[in-house]
Amino acid sequence: MIRRFLRRPQGAAEWLADAVRVLGPLSVIAGFVWWTPAAAGVLALTLIGLVLPRFVGVRPGFDIAFCVTVLVAAWSNVLLLYETVPGWDLVVHFACTGVLAAMGYLLLARLGFVPLPGDPGTRRGTPVLIVTTLGLALSAVWEMLEWIGWRFISDEIFVAYQDTIGDMAAGGLGGLTAGLLVARVRLLED
Asked: With CB atoms counted within 10 Å of each terminal CB, which end of the chain scores lower, N or C?
């Protein structure tokens, strides 16, 4: 995995993926300078995720989609899009949970915990089942963290039963969609 991470980009798409990745640290700086330390902290949460595609060794198209989605999710919080754009919360829960669940499956596959998609003997439904489960689990953990934030950090964090269930449903559907993608499209480099 370290070798994959340290490998020089090859081709325009890999260079573009790395350029998108650089937006992470620049976002943290911008959040700190032009917004608040809390905004910088939210944006800093993206940094580990942004390097994950390099370690896992995904194809550049998925790398770019993953990084853009993670950055959009974080910036949506800083720019208050979740509060000002109706339905945006559900769109981001669907998309972000989907790419995170797919990446989680691919990481587990690289580590040998689950079969690589497309390997002989791997049923096509295996990635669908596991990625969907990961999506639902990520959604549940996110909602628990949201509740912890509301309960112990700030009552300005919006937590309501309908919102929680809707977010988890959107995340689960994102996981299912991502699972279908992982089962049918080659996302890993060789």
From this structure: C
Q: Which domain holds residue 132?
A: 86-190
pLDDT, one tens digit per residue, over 103-135 is 999 999 999 999 998 888 888 899 999 999 999
Number of domains present in the structure of the chain: 2
Contacts of 172 (CB under 8 A, 6+ apart): 97, 132, 135, 136, 139
Q: Which residue has the tokens 């509740």?
A: 147
Structure tokens at 150: 């509301």
Q: What is the pLDDT of residue 136?
A: 96
Domain boundary among 62, 79, 96: 79
Residues 6+ apart with CB under 8 A from 189: 4, 57, 58, 59
CA dist 160 to 6, 120, 167, Å?
Answer: 43, 45, 11
Same domain, 31 and 99: no
Q: Are residues 6 and 65 in the same domain?
A: yes
The beta strands (E) that lie in 14-173 are given as: none
Strands (E), the chain: none
Residues 72, 100 share a domain: no
Residue at which a domain ends, from 46, 79, 112: 79
pLDDT single digits (tens) 57-85: 999 999 999 999 999 999 998 999 988 99
